[in-house]
Design goal:
By secondary structure, the chain is an all-beta fold. The chain contains no helices and six strands.
Length: about 80
């Protein structure tokens, strides 16, 4: 899935949210959004593999905030890699 994500901190401290496939529990290769203060916004463009239902997961790591995801599309490579 190709998407944009926006994380807005609700605490006056470092906060973060990690974005990863639902079939992955913990890995050092996750993608994340970090902020340093209240009402600070972090945003980025991402590409993640989804599960068979088209879902990903987001986990708040430190502090709290609000996450918004804007889906931009997907790339289906089944039968095209090899």
């Amino acid at each position: 899935m190709l998407f944009s994500g926006q994380w807005i901190s609700t605490l006056n401290a470092n906060t973060a949210v990690e974005l990863l496939p639902t079939f992955v529990s913990n890995t050092p290769a996750v993608q994340a959004l970090w902020t340093v203060s209240n009402a600070v916004r972090a945003a980025g463009h991402f590409r993640l593999m989804t599960d068979t239902s088209g879902q990903i997961q987001a986990k708040a790591l430190a502090g709290g905030g609000s996450l918004t995801i804007f889906t931009m599309g997907w790339k289906d490579t089944r039968g095209k890699d090899g």
